[in-house]
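Q: What does the assembled structure look like for these inputs?
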Amino acid sequence: MADLEKVDIIGTPALDGTYIAEMDMWPFECQEFNRIYPFYENLRAGKFTTTKCQKCGHIAYPPGVICPKCWSDELEWVELPQKARIVTFTETQAGAPIGFPSPIIMAWLNFGEGAPLKHLLARIINCKEGELKDGDEVKFVVFDVPSHPIEVKKETKICDRVYYAFEPVK
Amino acid sequence: MAEKKKAVIVGGGTSKFGVRQAHLLDMVQEAMKACSDDIPALKPTDIDGLIIATTMAGRHSSALNTAPLVVHRLGLSPTAICIRLDTLCAGSNSAIIVAKGLVESGMAEAILVTGAEKVYMPQRWETNYTQLMVNDHDWDSAMGLGVPPPFFAMIAKMHMKRYGTTKEQMAAVSVTNYTYGEGHTKGHFAGRSLTIEGALEARIIADPFGLYDCCPLSDGASAAIIASEEKAKELTDRPPVYVRGTGQHASHSMSAGWPGETLAEWTHLKVAAEVAFKNARLTPKDIDVAQTHDCFTISEIIELEELGFCKKGEGGDFVASGAIEIDGEIPTNTDGGLLVYGHPFGASGARQSLEICKQLQGRAIHQVKDAAFGLAHNLSGTCAQHTVVIYGKEPVD
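A:
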């Protein structure tokens, strides 16, 4: 993962930097392609956020454009808890998708009683194979991922990106 | 208003499944040939509807609008429907749900349901890469969640922790399915056998799964004919097998919103099954033979529980007791299932439904005695969706 975390990488590393959007494993995070771009802007500020319905109060995850409970489009951004506990996890030895290190560690997280987002499947980074056990506490972490170009009239703009995962609380 | 028609599955066939030296459309033609051999009276002009179920056609075969290509290669001229349909691993059973509705309403007389995938690419890594696109891409794939073994390994660990399921019980699923695979020469692992020791000693894919706990990815195609009862009588003398009831349910995309109390409870399957049983006016006790989506050994165990064939949490003991064997309570995956016959996503549903068709017509390779009612089930995506189709030798009414 280390070399992928450099912000100076543009495009798809497996394609020697040539950018083909349909080979992109990260989201289009910019305002030009995504109405929930504030999620990614909040990530850059270290915040884990989602949309809450101002009509019925439902907190959805992932964030959306309408509320999946009442279909209102009057939503606001709210912060989510950043700490969770491992319910169960897996360290995959074979067949990690290209761009991801092997073994890749994934976990089903529990954010605790009363948390708006109760469970989430997520990747665990900054953790060696064999270190993790059920019940361990993990915390939200943001890291840089490769940028991508967007053509804006005759210019090419570079969209820098981040993504998130969880890491052990030490 | 005219009386509602009855939809039946007439017959069909599959291509060879496996790592194939063939194009997607080559394999669709092979499946059509097998279907034609199975229903000799069937002519291209009998088919007034086509549904091709495929997920990878767009990316791996550069064939996004697949239906016209299939029409051309197979010499068809459908007038009622001509579509590509994608629900990933449930594609062709989803197509059977659609075909049932079209036939029962009188909009079509004979629909070719075909499923096909070309999974393997000139470089193997691209197949895994494409799998990142079958989930909620921006939320799950970016986490590296896409290739199924790790996710189902977590499910297995959870089921082991909550219900005491063991690796030996999981191995009983794959060993039984290998027994059933015998004689199915078009299966991915045709001609191979497996012992409990062999399963337990295999290399680890994702703990607790060894190699034989996981189905292969396969290239392949399947084809089945769904027709009105009247049309079916023109095409074959075999007893009709009615599509009695169906249910399909999705409740989440993947990473958040899992519907069960834990990953070991598949409440969304329970819902799909209840709807299908209600529509079929049957209960799990009525079913003589089942095809459940054994993408992993643990999947078959949990599916037997959620479909109501055994109590929740007792699936491990159930499979190890011999209940899924040919003379057991519910013979399951009697053609080897995904684990042995293989899994070309869109093709698997019709392959399962064809096995149920043959069982109910009394002509299966591993025949369940006097089978009158059968069930086919797919999960699709990373356990995001469940599809259930129930068949019977008698119609609902």
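The mean pLDDT of chain A is 89.
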